[in-house]
Design a protein that fits this description.
Blueprint (H helix, E strand, L loop, with lengths): L1 E5 L6 H12 L3 E3 H9 L3 H8 L1 H18 L3 E4 L10 H7 L3 E7 L2 H10 L13 H19 L4 E4 L5 H12 L1
Parallel strand pairs: 1-3, 1-4, 2-3, 4-5
The structure holds shikimate-3-phosphate (S3P).
The site of shikimate-3-phosphate has 10 residues, from loops.
């Protein structure tokens, strides 16, 4: 069984993924960490030195590699992973897998990301919470086309991590 978590930056893919891994006994993998290990560079450095297009090509190749590498996993993808090339279609066609969209509102994402935007290449240039909110509103609207193709969707705004995990497990049954 492979559980593939998708959703915007700050939606909790890593936190929920780790907790889901404990509850299900499936090993946890984080795509961003895998890319950093394989490239021997931080995501920030890859964006800065090689650019976003290089990152997206690598991201698409590494997610395929990771999904092939193990039969069982909880996988936290990056916020943009399903939104480029044919990746979402490939995620949906992965045998014995379920895609899960962690759906958070623009306001929740803004609050979370404002505090930790400085190491995130796509939003670090935004100088006020209002600009960040506008950016997320537009970006999330574009990306929702991909996120909403997930088999399972969970609205995360008012739930604790354990409640989100419980909902995912219930929907997987
Ligand atoms: C990105 C999200 C990041 C990381 C990169 C690009 C995106 O992952 O892959 O900075 O395009 O939304 P997280 O969603 O884990 O922060």
């Amino acid at each position: 069984m492979k559980i593939i978590l998708i959703g915007y930056m700050g939606s909790g893919k890593s936190v929920i993924g780790k907790e889901l891994s404990k509850v299900t006994g499936l090993p946890f993998f984080d795509l961003d960490s895998f890319i950093e290990q394989e490239e021997n560079l931080s995501i920030e450095a890859i964006f800065a030195h090689q650019g976003e297009i290089y990152f997206r090509k690598k991201e698409a190749a590494y997610v395929k590699q990771l999904l092939r590498s193990n039969d069982k996993m909880v996988l936290a993808t990056g916020g943009g992973t399903p939104c480029y090339g044919e990746v979402m279609t490939e995620l949906l066609q992965t045998p014995n897998s379920s895609t899960v969209y962690l759906n958070c509102s623009v306001d929740t994402l803004t609050k979370r990301l404002w505090k930790e935007k400085d190491h995130r290449p796509l939003i670090r240039h935004l100088t006020s919470e209002e600009l960040l909110n506008d950016f997320i509103r537009k970006h999330l609207f574009e990306r929702s086309f991909f996120y909403n193709q997930a088999a399972i969707k969970v609205s995360c705004d008012v739930l604790t991590p354990s409640e989100i995990v419980a909902q995912i497990v219930l929907k997987l049954l």
